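The data layer described in this paper is built around a simple, fixed record for each protein. We quote a single record here, exactly as it is kept in our systems:
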Amino acid sequence: MIGTGVFTSLGFQLKDLSNPLTILTLWILGGTLALSGAFSYAEVGTIIKKSGGEYAFLSHIYHPVAGYLSGWISLSVGFAAPIALAAIAFTEYFPFSGSVSSSKWISIALVALITLIHTQSLKFSSGFQNISTLFKVTLIVILITIGLLIPASSGNTFIFESSSFQEITSAPFAIALIYVSYSYSGWNAAAYITEEFKHPTKSLPIALIGGTLLVTILYTLLQFIFLKHVPVSELAGELNVGSIVAEKILGKNIGNLFGLAISIFLVSSISAMVWVGARVTSSIAREHRLWHYFQADQDAVPYKALWLQFGISTFLLLTGTFEQIMIYCGILLSLSAMMTVIGVFFLRSQKKFRSEQGYKSPFFPLFQLLFILLSLWMVVFAFIQNTYETLLGMTNIAIGLGTYVWSKKLT
């Protein structure tokens, strides 16, 4: 769950939003949105009890085509786009990445290297992931601790003015919420492995809801640290926010070291998505003839799916900017998650599920309606402000529908 967005998206938010309280409200609202989704996924997951996340849930609730389209989003953009974004961020944070013209090729080479690592044994790739994840969480805790203990930098007036209602209800706020919701993406990851829990009815809600609450606290504190130590004008439009803040707090040399550390942390994010994403593709390949070629081999390593994912990530790196990829990815993931949340209403309306001893979302339907309304609000404003990226997302879904029809004909 802790990935690229928390270290990269603040600069884009500050291009049109300037009130620190508005920014912190944005991150708390993003956490509330993710928490609302976690409540809903916990309920759906403890009733259906199948691994695969949206792919399994939507197939069961609506129709196999709905599940396929959510799987298509995962295959085509759900993991490949975040991999591309993290690779771009890596080149921005890495102190020795070179010129802008070479950055894309460094990004591609990095994704290729990590993909190669994950084509080795499961033991090797899992060990690499565990070590890099421990490093990632430790780095964030250290940065928050240092930022809280050290006084604000001289000249930075971190004043909470009365939050402008006009700013919070504006189109830029809605677009910024897409960036933030992308940063929280991964809150639903436990739903992909429901069948691996010994007691999913108890464990799945703890993983989804507890993890989301913890990350919301970390993310909000981290943004507070960023805004506390660097003036808004110096962060607006910048991608490498973390290293800018570290340099402001600890000086240029230490700042460069933090930039290096954050770039290594981003390697962990790329690794996690490379690992999981290929296995989602492999799961789809087992059930749809069109994708049979990308099934995992006998040793359970999905070699072909890994390199397909690399190819899609490379295409995105060569054709899109960081901002375009994030909007495009965020819209599609929001739509897929929203359909699962709507599914709670369908399940509760069916008599055979009313007696199920699964988790029940509190204050139903408050959190479900909040998630749906905020998701629709983001998509509508995204269409108005970023029409090109939104239409690309809709085109992607149309292509996915075409591949579903093609796959059914091959059956």
